[in-house]
From TrEMBL:
GO terms for cellular component: Golgi membrane. It is found in: Golgi apparatus membrane. GO terms for molecular function: chondroitin 4-sulfotransferase activity. It is an enzyme of class 2 (transferase). It comes from Sphenodon punctatus. InterPro entries: Carb_sulfotrans_8-10, Sulfotransferase. Residues 78-102 are annotated as: Disordered. One of its GO terms (biological process) is dermatan sulfate proteoglycan biosynthetic process. This is Carbohydrate sulfotransferase. Its EC number is 2.8.2.-. Belongs to the sulfotransferase 2 family. It is a single-pass type II membrane protein. The chain crosses the membrane at residues 7-26.
Length: 419
């Protein structure tokens, strides 16, 4: 009996080894080869696999996990011709946003140098943020949708915001409207996933915006299934244990205001057709709505902020499709109760957090985070923006985004939720 089990195990391990050899030499990302040189060296729990009867198949699966982890921890690094990178056609790139780029211009980028601020104990601050996150994830009295599910239960399409850099062992969960354009630029430079005239980009701001948000530019978790098949979840879990994981968040209500400003106050054809036209028809009682955003703006037809809030609160909205990523809750984008993040940055302290993170990752000599911008969507604006929103709506909206407020330590906006 023992010989038979050993034979089956040797066959399984041999098959896995051959598959991994193919992955190592033919995968264009080089996932099985990475070296870790970050200062995050603490151990993470791998997460509990679903329990089942302890039969031979379960034992074999455990051996596979152990084998994959040992291989991925071996410190090998790929430098051969198979580490292919995406070469984009040469574009006129500038280190500052071009005049024609309304999306970045409206944000008011600040290219001046900042005076040094009073330094905080950044490590202590990170400990507090991570402790708050863990405490509320473990608090059974604080509930919200999807909180209790396991990582294995997260659908593949919900893992598309987790960007992987195998060269440095980093995983970044991007949150739209939280400096994600520049963080994506940083990830491109670190992973060398994009070439400019045959050479990897070295300055994040040289990367054109249209390439930054091209999904083919980044290796994300939701692409693993296509590359690794049934081994994809095992590889994800090992990377989540070994790699440094970070995200950046923002006051949820201010993020909503920012999303509204950039997607509906500017002429955005895609968002006009997908969202503005239905909003104008449903909530503003317009029957003959122009088919193009330029015609609508010329006619003075624009979605109002109350229309946008009405749309978010309308129960029909999510029956049609999940929230767009620009206003989807962070807990739904990044799964903070299923993924043990090493670093939680905030837009409100972006400059300090970015510098601290790059230093902790030991990449601060390779690049600097792009200059921050004067945030025209400030917290002090909340009262003005919500002045015309009925109190009952504000309270419903808070309940909708309450998990983001609580998990990431943002105070409840009492001044907006009471008469």
């Amino acid at each position: 009996m023992t010989k038979a089990r050993l034979f089956r195990l040797s066959v399984v391990v041999g098959s896995i080894f051959m598959i991994l050899l193919i992955i190592v030499y033919w995968d264009n990302v080089g996932t099985a080869h990475f070296y870790l040189h970050t200062t995050f060296s603490r151990s993470h729990s791998l997460g509990v696999l679903p329990t089942a009867a302890q039969d031979d198949d379960q034992e074999a699966l455990s051996d596979v996990d152990e084998f994959l982890e040992k291989l991925l921890s071996s410190g090998l690094r790929q430098n051969g011709p198979f580490n292919r990178k995406t070469e984009q056609p040469p574009l006129q790139a500038s280190s500052k946003p071009g005049l024609g780029n309304l999306e970045e211009n409206v944000r008011g980028y600040d290219w001046s140098t900042h005076d040094s601020r009073v330094s905080l104990d950044r490590d202590k601050l990170q400990d507090e943020r991570r402790r708050t996150l863990k405490e509320f994830c473990a608090n059974s009295s604080f509930t919200f949708p999807t909180k209790e599910r396991l990582f294995e239960d997260i659908p593949n399409y919900e893992l598309n915001h987790l960007i992987v850099d195998d060269r440095h062992g980093i995983i970044y969960c991007y949150v739209p409207k939280v400096a994600c354009t520049n963080w994506k630029r940083v990830m491109i430079v670190l992973s060398e996933s994009l070439l400019d005239q045959g050479a990897p980009y070295t300055d994040p701001l040289d990367i054109p915006r249209e390439h930054v948000h091209n999904t083919s530019t980044h290796l994300t978790f939701n692409k693993f299934w296509r590359r690794y098949g049934k081994f994809s979840r095992h590889l994800m879990k090992i990377k989540l244990k070994k790699y440094t994981k970070f995200l950046f968040v923002r006051d949820p209500f201010v993020r909503l205001i920012s999303a509204f400003r950039s997607k509906f106050e500017l002429e955005n054809e895609e968002f006009y057709r997908r969202f503005a036209i239905p909003m104008l028809k449903l909530y503003s009682n317009h029957t003959n709505v122009p088919t193009s955003v330029s015609e609508a703006f010329e006619a003075g037809l624009r979605v109002s902020f109350p229309d946008f809030i009405h749309y978010l609160l309308d129960p029909r909205t999510e029956k049609m499709a999940p929230f767009n990523e620009h206003w989807r809750q962070v807990y739904r984008l990044c799964h903070p109760c299923q993924i043990d993040y090493d670093f939680v940055g905030k837009l409100e302290t972006l400059d300090e957090d970015a510098a601290h993170l790059l230093q902790l990752l030991n990449v601060d000599k390779l690049l600097h985070f792009p200059p921050s911008y004067r945030n025209r969507t400030a917290s002090s604006w909340e009262e003005d923006w919500f002045a015309k929103i009925p109190l009952a709506w504000r309270q419903q909206l808070y309940k909708l985004y309450e998990p983001d407020f609580v998990l990431f330590g943002y105070p409840k906006p009492e001044h907006l939720l009471k008469d």
